[in-house]
Automatic annotation (TrEMBL):
Biased composition (Polar residues): 1-10
Region (Disordered): 1-56
Name listed for the protein in its UniProt record: Uncharacterized protein
Ranges of Basic and acidic residues composition bias in the record: 37-56
Organism: Archangium gephyra
Length: 141
């Protein structure tokens, strides 16, 4: 009876295309990703043309000696968030401090932009969050 079950299971699995992880490597779609990548050729350059350096500082990873051939210039570092980003990019990427400082810099950048967009409304929000509890406790007594 067990032999019939095994034969039946093998027959069922044989009908399923792509069944089995340990199948023939020539038929496995993931095998090309396991091979060493080879240059395909056809490019008109050996190294990409470098983007001209901008007038403002562009941040780069600590591991890089120079800027990459193409880099973003849409949001240059500014204010306190820029200072935090400069410090973060001085730390290697494999450290948690690097990522955490970049996250804090993003939040600070949001606060800076909100303060610049509407100073009165932003100031009242900040005072409400920071001093709201203190003010309420003083008013209740």
């Amino acid at each position: 009876m067990a032999e019939q079950d095994m034969t039946t299971a093998e027959q069922v699995h044989a009908d399923i295309p792509g069944w089995g992880v340990d199948g023939d490597p020539n038929n496995r779609p993931g095998v090309p990703m396991l091979l060493k990548p080879e240059p395909r050729g056809g490019a008109h350059w050996d190294r990409p043309e470098r983007q001209p350096p901008p007038d403002f500082p562009v941040l780069k990873r600590a591991e890089l000696d120079a800027l990459t051939p193409a880099f973003g210039t849409a949001a240059p570092p500014k204010g306190l968030s820029g200072v935090l980003r400069r410090v973060a990019y001085g730390i290697p990427e494999n450290r948690a401090r690097h990522v955490m400082l970049l996250l804090v810099a993003d939040r600070v950048d949001v606060l800076e932009s909100r303060l610049l967009r509407g100073p009165a409304k932003s100031l009242s929000t900040v005072l409400g969050l920071v001093g709201g509890g203190w003010l309420l406790s003083r008013l209740r007594t």
